[in-house]
Amino acid sequence: MTENLFKDEVVANQFNDYNDVLEQVLGYNFVLSILKSTQAKKILDYGCGPGKVSLRLANQLSADILAVDESAKMIEIAKRERKHQQIDYKIVKKDNLDFISDNSVDGAIACYVFINNQSEQRILKIMREIYRTLRPNSHFIILDTNPNTTGVPFSTFQNGEPGKSYSYGEERVEKLNLDSQEKLILHDFNWPNRMYETNLKRAGFSEITVRYPKLEDFSAEQIQQIEQEYHYKSWLNEKTQAPFILYQAIKK
Ligand SMILES: C[S@@+](CC[C@H](N)C(=O)[O-])C[C@H]1O[C@@H](n2cnc3c(N)ncnc32)[C@H](O)[C@@H]1O
Question: How far does the centroid of ligand 1 lie from the alpha carbon of residue 109, in Å?
Answer without folding.
Answer: 11
